[in-house]
Design a protein that fits this description.
Length: about 180
């Protein structure tokens, strides 16, 4: 089982990102879960969402305490929220930033990958909507879901021009990751 934790701010699409990861995994023949963890937060407040993927039925229903992947949609959260809690050796953290990975301190054994998702979103979508870019980057980085499944999940969620722009943004996120 692979477990993903997403940190963002209210309004950034953290919950939607988790749902799209799960939907894309489902299209790829996997079992998946997606669920948020928030209370009465408002736009801009820290939000956490989770996704689990496996090739067999998932019985676990708890939060994710030791993530395999951490997606951080807002790099300012690194200083204000313990986004690395539960990270273990081998955890990969994908951070939306134009900064270098060396600008971030993570626990020993955690690999940091940075993606300038906001910059890409402004170029392609025209707004700082970054979740689909990070979804594409996560798909390539993890190898857990295909770009075809990501595109299908996005198009099911967003129709027309918005869907087209988000698929293009996800593809750019996919392309920016070099293995």
């Amino acid at each position: 089982m692979k477990e993903i934790r997403i940190h963002g701010r209210g309004g950034q699409g953290s919950v939607t990102a988790a749902e799209l990861i799960a939907q894309a995994a489902f299209y790829g023949g996997q079992f998946a879960q997606a669920f948020p963890n928030f209370g009465v937060e408002r736009r801009g407040a820290p939000v956490t969402a989770f996704a689990r993927l496996d090739n067999k039925f998932i019985r676990r229903r708890s939060q994710i305490y030791e993530p395999d992947y951490i997606i951080i949609q807002d790099a300012t959260l690194v200083d204000g929220v313990d986004v690395f809690w539960g990270a273990k050796k081998g955890t990969v953290a994908l951070i939306n930033t134009e900064k270098s990975k060396s600008d971030f301190k993570a626990p020993i054994g955690v690999k940091i990958i940075t993606v300038p998702a906001t910059k890409i979103a402004l170029e392609i979508i025209g707004k700082p909507i970054i979740n689909t870019i990070l979804l594409g980057a996560f798909a390539k980085l993890s190898g857990l879901i295909s770009m075809e499944s990501v595109g299908r999940a996005i198009r099911e969620r967003f129709a027309g021009e918005i869907g087209d722009k988000n698929v293009a943004a996800a593809k750019r996120g996919w392309e920016i990751i070099r293995q």
